[in-house]
């Protein structure tokens, strides 16, 4: 998760007590019912498993100051003759005498993004024990490389583990596949039939003489 230059003194005290010398960039208290020792490292595979349903919480991307069209999808004013500056205008924001003010929460232009976003129901599809990584299917809030918090919700309903991946051989000609076995069997059958025809002694059509062919035609 990286380190940062300046850290508050209470956090430095907690880190020293746990035996961690680094100034952690992300410091959070997460309560659990399991009995853990101070300074113990928790691996991903100890908490999550393939097929789990999780909730991912992060900070959305910052998009700066946007108008009503870009922020909320307003349609703007009518695109007709005589309209000069109303194409992306928000329209009326309230009446004059009554209520005589703008209601709180009125959707208007302003800063967009950098908000806490939680996405529920994502699926864990793979866990890499060696790299201590977790692969999640679905959209993850935030920019690439941002810190997110993953909460386990339970198991996906009707989850079935995927079949094991089979190794594909590079040399298909030398592999004993069913197709190659069928081809070899048909070749063997052809060779057997040719041997039987030769052993039976029946002459081939090319061995008949012209006179025999004419006699058979007259009959």
From TrEMBL:
<feature type="region of interest" description="Disordered">
    <location>
        <begin position="156"/>
        <end position="219"/>
    </location>
</feature>
<dbReference type="GO" id="GO:0022625">
    <property type="term" value="C:cytosolic large ribosomal subunit"/>
</dbReference>
<keyword id="KW-0689">Ribosomal protein</keyword>
<keyword id="KW-0694">RNA-binding</keyword>
<protein>
    <recommendedName>
        <fullName>50S ribosomal protein L3</fullName>
    </recommendedName>
</protein>
<dbReference type="InterPro" id="IPR019927">
    <property type="entry name" value="Ribosomal_uL3_bac/org-type"/>
</dbReference>
<dbReference type="Pfam" id="PF00297">
    <property type="entry name" value="Ribosomal_L3"/>
</dbReference>
<dbReference type="GO" id="GO:0006412">
    <property type="term" value="P:translation"/>
</dbReference>
<feature type="region of interest" description="Disordered">
    <location>
        <begin position="78"/>
        <end position="99"/>
    </location>
</feature>
<feature type="compositionally biased region" description="Polar residues">
    <location>
        <begin position="194"/>
        <end position="208"/>
    </location>
</feature>
<dbReference type="InterPro" id="IPR009000">
    <property type="entry name" value="Transl_B-barrel_sf"/>
</dbReference>
<feature type="compositionally biased region" description="Polar residues">
    <location>
        <begin position="171"/>
        <end position="185"/>
    </location>
</feature>
<dbReference type="GO" id="GO:0019843">
    <property type="term" value="F:rRNA binding"/>
</dbReference>
<keyword id="KW-0699">rRNA-binding</keyword>
<keyword id="KW-0687">Ribonucleoprotein</keyword>
<dbReference type="GO" id="GO:0003735">
    <property type="term" value="F:structural constituent of ribosome"/>
</dbReference>
<dbReference type="InterPro" id="IPR000597">
    <property type="entry name" value="Ribosomal_uL3"/>
</dbReference>
<comment type="similarity">
    <text>Belongs to the universal ribosomal protein uL3 family.</text>
</comment>
């Amino acid at each position: 998760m990286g380190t940062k230059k300046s850290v508050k003194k209470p956090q430095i005290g907690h880190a020293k007590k746990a035996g961690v010398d680094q100034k952690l960039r992300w410091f959070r208290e997460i309560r659990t019912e399991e009995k853990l020792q101070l300074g113990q490292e928790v691996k991903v595979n100890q908490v999550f498993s393939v097929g789990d349903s999780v909730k991912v919480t992060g900070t959305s991307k910052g998009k700066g100051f946007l108008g009503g069209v870009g922020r909320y999808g307003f349609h703007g004013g009518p695109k007709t003759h005589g309209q000069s500056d109303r194409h992306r205008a928000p329209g009326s924001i309230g009446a004059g005498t009554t209520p005589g003010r703008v209601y709180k929460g009125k959707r208007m232009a302003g800063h967009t993004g950098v908000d806490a976003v939680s996405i529920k129901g994502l699926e864990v599809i793979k866990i890499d024990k060696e790299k201590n990584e977790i692969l999640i299917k679905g959209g993850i809030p935030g920019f690439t490389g941002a810190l997110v918090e993953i909460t386990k919700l339970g198991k996906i309903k009707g989850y079935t583990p995927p079949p094991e991946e089979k190794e594909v051989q590079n040399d298909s000609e030398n592999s004993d596949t069913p197709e190659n076995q069928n081809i070899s069997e048909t070749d063997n059958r052809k060779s057997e039939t040719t041997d039987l025809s030769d052993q039976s002694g029946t002459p081939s059509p090319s061995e008949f003489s012209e006179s025999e062919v004419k006699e058979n035609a007259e009959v």
